[in-house]
Design brief:
heterodimer, A: mainly alpha, Herpes Virus-1, two-stranded antiparallel ribbon, 2 strands, 1% strand, elongated, B: alpha+beta, Ubiquitin Conjugating Enzyme, four-stranded antiparallel sheet, 8 helices, 4 strands, nucleotide-binding (chain B), ATP binding (chain B), UBC (chain B), UBCD4_UBA (chain B), ATP-binding (chain B)
Chain lengths: 326, 200
C-alpha cells in the first residue's frame, strides 16, 4: 500500500512489473512437454503441487505418464513432485460395487495362491509316499497277505504308517555305519591276526612306510560328501533289491517276509564289506602317492612325441616307487 | 507418439537454450547432430577459478525415446581429469542423470549442473577412483593435472613444460601419448612408477 501513496514515479514502475509477472504466470507451460496454452487449446491442465512459476502447471496426460514412469507398474505406489516433494493426490472414479468386489476377489486370490500351491506340492509328496509305502508292503509281504493286513488295520494307522516307510528308509540310508566299522578295524587291526590277513596292505602301511602319515585320524576320509540323489535312490530301491536278493539266496524259505528280510540283511552285509574294502584301498592309494621331481623333457629320435609324466597314482608308478623306498 | 513428445520438447528446449543468458555469455551451447533431435552436441565453458577455466568441453547428448520421462544420456567427448567423470570413457556420475532426474529439468539445467559439478567435485561418490584419490590426497597435484588436461584437450591456457617433458620421455619409448598422460597422471607424474606400470 505504501508504494501507491509514496512518490509519483515509482508507482507506475511497480504496477508495470507486477503486470509482467502476472501475465507470465498466467500463460501456462507444461513442465513435461513444455507446450504452452497456445499450442493445444483443448488439453486439460492441472496444478498438482506446491510449485510456483515454470513448474506450476502441467498437462493432466503428461503428469499421468510421469506418474506411470515413477510407479513402474505398482499402481498404488505414491508419487511426489520431484521439486517440492508434495505428494500427488490421485483419485480414482467410483466404478460401482461390482468392480470393488472384483478388486477384492483379485487381491484375495493373489495372496492365497502361493499357499495353495505349497499345499498341492506337499500333498503330492505325501500321497506319493503313501503309495510307495503300500507298494513296498505288498512287495515284502506278498500281494494277498498285504491286502488282508491293510484291510484289518485302522485306516488312520495306514495314513501315518505307510508314508513313514520311505522316510525311515531314507533316514536309515543316511546312517554311515561303514565309516564306524572301518575306524574300528583300523584301530584294532594290529591286535587281530585275521584282519592282518584280510588287509595286508594296510598293515604294511601301519608298519611305517610313511612315517608322517602313521596316525590315521589325520587323514581326511575320502568321498566324504553325501550325495542326496544317491541316498534317495539307494533308500527307495532297497526293498526291491532286498526282494531280489532274497529270491536269489534264500529261495527255499517259504515265507515272503522272512526271505526278503534275510535278502536285505545279506545285501547290506555284502555291500558294506565291499565299501569298507574300497574305502580302505582308496585310503592307502592316497597315503602312498608321490609327487615326482621335475625332469626336463628329453628330445628322442623316434617320431612319437615324448611321453608326458605319468599320473602319480598309477599302479606302475606305485610299484617303482615302493621298490625304491623298500 | 512417445517419440513425438521427445522431439517436440527438444525443439522447445532448443529455443530456451538459445534464448538463455548463459549462451550470451558463451557459457553453454547446444547443437543438433541429426535432424530428428535424438542426438545433440553440447558445449560447456570451464567454470572460472577452477583448473578447467578457459577450456571448452564438448559433450555427447543422446535423447532417449522416452524423454523427458527418462534422463538424456550425457558423456564428455573432451577428455577431462575430474573425480566424477571417467578419464577414459567420459562417463559422468551425477544423480540427476540417473535416479534423481525430473521431467521439469532441461538440457539447459543439465549443462548448468555439469558446469557446477566441474566447479565442485564430489570425491566421495566418484566415477574415476584414481582421480578421486588424488583429489583427496594431493589437491595441488590434482589441480595441476586437471589444468594440464584442460590445456591439452580443451584448448585451455598454459602448458606444463615439466609434464610435457615426462610425456615425451614415454612417447620416445613407443608409448602412445594419451596412454602416457593417463599413466603419469595416475601416478602423480612419477615417471619411474608410470613407466613400470606401462611396461609391466
Amino acid at each position: 500500500m505504501s508504494f501507491f501513496t509514496s512518490g509519483n514515479t515509482p508507482v507506475t514502475q511497480v504496477v508495470a512489473t507486477r503486470n509482467d509477472l502476472e501475465s507470465n504466470e498466467e500463460k501456462k507451460y507444461c513442465w513435461v512437454c513444455f507446450a504452452s496454452e497456445d499450442d493445444d487449446a483443448h488439453a486439460s491442465w492441472v496444478q498438482p503441487c506446491n510449485c510456483r512459476g515454470t513448474t506450476k502447471w502441467v498437462h493432466q496426460v503428461c503428469l499421468q505418464r510421469w506418474v506411470d514412469e515413477k510407479q513402474k507398474g505398482n499402481m498404488s505406489g505414491k508419487v511426489s513432485c520431484p521439486q517440492c516433494n508434495s505428494e500427488y493426490i490421485i483419485v480414482f472414479p467410483d466404478m460401482g460395487p461390482l468392480i470393488v468386489l472384483l478388486d477384492a476377489v483379485d487381491n484375495v486370490v493373489y495372496k492365497v495362491c502361493p499357499f495353495v500351491a505349497a499345499g498341492i506340492v506337499v500333498g503330492s509328496i505325501y500321497w506319493t509316499a503313501v503309495t510307495y509305502g503300500a507298494v513296498t508292503v505288498m512287495q515284502v509281504v506278498g500281494n494277498k497277505e498285504a491286502m488282508n493286513m491293510m484291510d484289518q488295520v485302522d485306516p488312520l494307522v495306514l495314513l501315518v504308517g505307510l508314508p513313514a516307510i520311505p522316510i525311515v528308509l531314507i533316514l536309515g540310508k543316511m546312517v554311515r555305519w561303514e565309516d564306524t566299522v572301518l575306524t574300528f578295524i583300523r584301530r584294532h587291526s594290529n591286535k587281530v591276526p585275521l584282519l592282518k590277513y584280510l588287509m595286508p596292505s594296510y598293515v604294511l602301511l601301519g608298519a611305517g612306510i610313511d612315517g608322517v602319515r602313521e596316525s590315521n585320524s589325520d587323514v581326511p576320509p575320502l568321498a566324504d560328501t553325501v550325495s542326496a540323489t544317491r541316498v534317495l535312490c539307494g533308500a527307495l530301491l532297497f526293498p526291491t533289491v532286498a526282494t531280489i536278493c532274497g529270491k536269489i539266496f534264500f529261495d527255499n524259505i517259504p515265507s515272503n517276509i522272512q526271505r526278503t528280510l534275510l535278502g536285505g540283511i545279506t545285501f547290506i552285509a555284502l555291500k558294506g564289506c565291499l565299501k569298507i574294502y574300497h574305502m580302505q584301498q582308496q585310503f592307502i592309494r592316497q597315503s602312498k602317492r608321490r609327487i615326482l621331481d621335475y625332469t626336463p623333457p628329453v628330445v628322442q629320435p623316434d617320431p612319437t612325441p615324448a611321453p608326458t609324466p605319468t599320473p602319480v597314482n598309477t599302479p606302475t608308478q606305485d610299484l617303482t616307487d615302493s621298490s625304491q623306498t623298500a | 507418439m512417445a517419440n513425438n513428445i521427445a522431439a517436440q520438447r527438444i525443439q522447445r528446449e532448443f529455443k530456451e537454450v538459445i534464448k538463455s543468458d548463459e549462451v550470451a555469455k558463451c557459457a553453454i551451447r547446444v547443437e543438433l547432430v541429426n535432424d530428428n533431435y535424438t542426438e545433440l552436441k553440447g558445449e560447456i565453458a570451464g567454470p572460472p577459478d577452477t583448473p578447467y577455466e578457459g577450456g571448452n568441453f564438448v559433450l555427447e547428448i543422446k535423447v532417449p525415446e522416452t524423454y523427458p520421462f527418462n534422463p538424456p544420456k550425457v558423456r564428455f567427448i573432451t577428455k577431462i581429469w575430474h573425480p566424477n567423470i571417467s578419464s577414459v570413457t567420459g562417463a559422468i556420475c551425477l544423480d540427476i542423470l540417473r535416479d534423481q532426474w525430473a521431467a521439469a529439468m532441461t538440457l539447459r539445467t543439465v549443462l548448468l549442473s555439469l558446469q557446477a559439478l566441474m566447479a565442485a567435485a564430489e570425491p566421495d561418490d566418484p566415477q574415476d577412483a584414481v582421480v578421486a584419490k588424488q583429489y583427496k590426497d594431493d589437491q595441488e597435484m590434482f589441480r595441476l593435472t586437471a589444468k594440464h588436461w584442460t590445456a591439452k584437450y580443451a584448448g585451455g591456457p598454459g602448458g606444463n613444460p615439466d609434464f610435457e617433458m615426462k610425456i615425451r620421455r614415454l612417447t620416445d619409448m613407443g608409448v602412445e601419448e594419451d596412454q602416457a598422460r593417463v599413466a603419469l597422471s595416475s601416478y602423480n607424474w612419477d615417471l619411474e612408477r608410470a613407466t613400470e606400470q606401462l611396461f609391466s
